[in-house]
Amino acid sequence: MTKLTFIAHDGTRFDVEAENGSTVMESAIRNSVPGIEAECGGACACATCHVYVDEEWTDIVGEPEAMEEDMLDFAYDVRPTSRLSCQIRVRDELDGLVVSVPERQG
C-alpha cells in the first residue's frame, strides 16, 4: 500500500493507505477526506477534486495533460502545483505524497 497525506484547508492531516492503480481522488473518497467532492466520479469532467501537490512532489507526480489543464480553468484558486486528484494514479513512487485541499471546490 502507498501512503498518502491529505491536508485539509483547516490544517487537519488525513494519512491514508491507497492501492496502487487507484487514483488519489478515489483514496480521498474512500477515506472521507473533507473537501474532495468528485462530482463527476473521476472522469476529468469537473474540477471538484482539485488539490495542491506539495512542491517536493511536483516532479514525481508530473504535469497535467491538456484535458486536465482545461478543467483546472474551472477550479477555485488555481496555483502552479494544482492538479485534479482523479488524474493522479497511485504508484510506488508516490509513497508519502502530500497534497493540500483548497478552501473550496469550484
Automatic annotation (TrEMBL):
CDD domains: fer2 (cd00207). This is 2Fe-2S ferredoxin. The keyword Glycoprotein does not apply. Belongs to the adrenodoxin/putidaredoxin family. Its cofactor is [2Fe-2S] cluster. The keyword Glycoprotein does not apply. Residues 2-105 form the 2Fe-2S ferredoxin-type domain. Keywords: 2Fe-2S, Iron, Iron-sulfur, Metal-binding.
